[in-house]
Amino acid sequence: MFKRFLSIILVFTAIFIIANKAIYLHVHEADDGTLIVHAHPFNKSADDAPIKKHHHNLLEYVLLSHFDLIFIASLLFSLAVKFSPGIILSIKRKKCLGEIFLTFKPLRAPPLK
Fold first, then answer.
1. Across the chain, where does the E strand assignment appear?
2. Beta-carbon neighbour count of residue 34 at 10 Å?
3. How far apart are CA 40 and CA 45, in angstroms?
4. Which pLDDT tens digit goes with each residue over 27-77?
5. How far apart (Å, rounded) are the C-alpha atoms in residues 40 and 83?
6. Stated pTM of the model
7. DSSP E strands: which ranges in 9-97?
8. Is residue 64 a contact partner of residue 56, using CB atoms and an 8 Å limit?
């Protein structure tokens, strides 16, 4: 049940990301001249300039620019949480039998030449 639900959510999220990038990808110019590329729904007919004029704060720029990475990181995290106990429990631990010999000779001066 969880796998089916997760796969449906992932498929719809991937479709949303692809459609969002294909339709709404645009560029902003920051105050220092840096060009920031991101995608989100906005009224394209109101602003047809190559560099868009609507504004975002810094947090919005970061989240919108890295939404794909946030999605992939959350996907990997959810998969790790789901499957890591099984992976950890399936590893068979073997005993390692070995001997270590240490020699220690106290109160001995260094050799003379």
1. 25-29, 35-39
2. 9
3. 14
4. 888 888 888 888 888 887 877 787 887 878 888 877 777 777 877 887 787
5. 33
6. 0.53
7. 25-29, 35-39
8. yes
3-state class (DSSP) for residue 93: coil
- Residue 35 CB neighbour total at 10 angstroms: 9
Distance CA 108, CA 94 (A): 41
105 CB-side CA count, 13 A: 3
> Which amino acid is present at 71?
F
Quote the tokens at residue 73: 């990181």
Structure tokens at 108: 């001995």
Query: What are the residues whose beta carbons fall under 8 Å from the beta carbon of 104, sequence distance 6 or more?
Result: none
Task: Quote the CA–CA distance of 54 and 29 in Å, as a whole number.
Answer: 10
Residue with the two structure tokens 């959510």: 9
